[in-house]
Amino acid sequence: MAAKALSFDVGDYVVYPKHGVGRVIELQKSEIAGMQLELYVLRFEKEKMTLRVPTNKAESVGMRKLSSDKTMKEAMETLKGKPKVKRTMWSRRAQEYEAKINSGDLVSIAEVVRDLFRADDQPEQSYSERQIFEAAASRLARELGAMEETDEKGALDKILDILRASAAIYNKDKAPA
Questions:
Q1: What are the Cα distances from residue 60, in Å, to 17, 27, 39, 126?
Q2: HSE on the CB side for 153, CA within 13 Å?
Q3: How far is CA 142 from CA 25, 110, 114, in A?
Q4: Which of 24, 25, 107, 113 has the smallest number of Cβ neighbours within 10 A?
């Protein structure tokens, strides 16, 4: 078995790429198929889900500690940038957005949030665009909330305030003079 590079303690917040922010609630030893396994037991409150991850697989599945303050600042700066909307088919863009969300990379998730945000004075989003936007925004807000020790709603409000402020700047450029 590989040496344990990652080590999480009970009570630590962790990020599991496919599910977002969870908390290590216990370390378990189990015998599965005749092998002794040590498992992290993760609890995802929002989804009301418990996940068991073998300690030796934590790194290979992309499980990580909460982002550093530097990475969070970079993600927040990304939100302030000009949205990049590719003119490719929606199904292709949707796949790319989902891949970014599931990568667990905070800056990539922030890019999805920025690119799919619609201010009140902008055209409506399609249902699938809104679903992907909400998934990305929720993932970003949960990590921000866990880092700042606030709730997801408070963190989401902070993200939306940043997006509205930057949308006002970039939409002003488009307004007819």
A1: 11, 18, 14, 35
A2: 0
A3: 17, 12, 16
A4: 25
Rounded Cα distance, 68 and 74, in Å? 10
Residue length of the chain: 177
| Distance in angstroms (rounded) separating the CA atoms of residues 1 and 75 | 35
Alpha carbon 66 to its chain centroid, in Å, reads: 11
Q: Residue 103 and residue 119: Cα distance in Å, rounded?
A: 26
Residue 3 pLDDT class (50, 70, 90 cuts): very low
Specify the pLDDT at position 168: 84
Cβ–Cβ under 8 Å, residues 91 and 99: no
- The Cα 166–Cα 77 span in angstroms is 10
CA distance 173 to 153: 30
What mean pLDDT, rounded, does the chain reach? 88
Rounded distance, CA 81 to CA 152, Å? 23
Kindly report the pTM of this predicted structure.
0.84
Domains of the chain with bracketed CATH: 12-65 (2.40.10.170), 69-173 (1.20.58.1290)
Tell me if 167 sits within 8 A of 175, measured CB to CB: no
